[in-house]
């Protein structure tokens, strides 16, 4: 007869995983991907390294879980911000939300966007970029339908904007550089011009 965990055992395991996960997010947000290791997460959670391996196969497995959770929250915030309004309001809200949240935690944002990572984590970045692209494409499509922007390939334009926003933010988010001037207004202006929004 196979062993079945009791509810109390499962609850204890779930609580342990949540504690490790929260500790890993904290390490990533303060030390970036370079500072995140099984040992650093275990230390932050106050447990042994073996306890981490009870819940996560390796560092890559742990970081993929973090990326899915954290990026999921970011995508939801961006999608909510750009859900209504004119194309100008929606694109402005999307870029201001994405860039504004990134600048509030530069270390975490840099880890999510640009820090060198392994292949499994890089694949999660592509999922995140596609979701962000879809949010912008929805705003562009609505703007085309309303006659606020010229007819264009909404998916291509959105992907180009995601690339531009990510590239522009890499510098200001870099841990090797002090915070510079606010680039968000210029990013918004660039995005609207590139879409053909009339002044």
Q: What low-confidence regions span 5 or more consecutive residues with pLDDT below 50?
A: none
Helix-strand string: HHHHHHHHH
SS field, number of helical segments: 9
Oligomer: single chain
The radius of gyration is: 20 Å
Total DSSP E strands: 0
Summed over residues and divided by their number, the pLDDT gives a mean of: 88
Give a structural overview.
The protein is mainly alpha-helical and 199 residues long. The chain contains nine helices and no strands. It has helices at 7-35, 38-45, 49-55, 59-81, 87-104, 106-113, 119-146, 154-173, 184-195. The termini are far apart.
Question: Secondary-structure blueprint of this entry?
Answer:
Elements: H1 7-35, H2 38-45, H3 49-55, H4 59-81, H5 87-104, H6 106-113, H7 119-146, H8 154-173, H9 184-195
Which key features would you list for this structure?
single chain, about 200 residues, mainly alpha, 9 helices, about 75% helix, about 0% strand, elongated
């Amino acid at each position: 007869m196979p062993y079945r965990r009791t509810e109390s055992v499962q609850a204890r395991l779930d609580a342990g995983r949540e504690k490790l996960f929260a500790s890993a997010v904290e390490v990533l947000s303060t030390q970036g991907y370079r500072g995140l290791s099984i040992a650093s997460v275990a230390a932050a959670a106050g447990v042994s390294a073996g306890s981490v391996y009870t819940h996560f196969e390796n560092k890559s497995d742990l970081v993929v879980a973090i990326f899915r959770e954290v990026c999921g929250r970011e995508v939801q915030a961006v999608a909510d911000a750009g859900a209504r309004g004119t194309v100008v309001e929606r694109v402005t809200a999307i870029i201001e939300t994405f860039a504004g949240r990134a600048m509030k935690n530069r270390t975490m944002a840099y880890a999510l966007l640009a820090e060198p990572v392994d292949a499994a984590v890089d694949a999660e970045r592509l999922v995140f970029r596609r979701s962000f692209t879809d949010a912008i494409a929805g705003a562009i499509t609505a703007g085309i339908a309303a006659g606020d922007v010229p007819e264009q390939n909404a998916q291509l334009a959105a992907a180009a904007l995601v690339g531009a926003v990510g590239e522009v933010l890499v510098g200001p988010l870099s841990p090797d550089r002090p915070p510079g001037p606010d680039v968000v207004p210029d990013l918004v202006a660039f995005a609207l011009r590139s879409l053909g929004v009339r002044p």
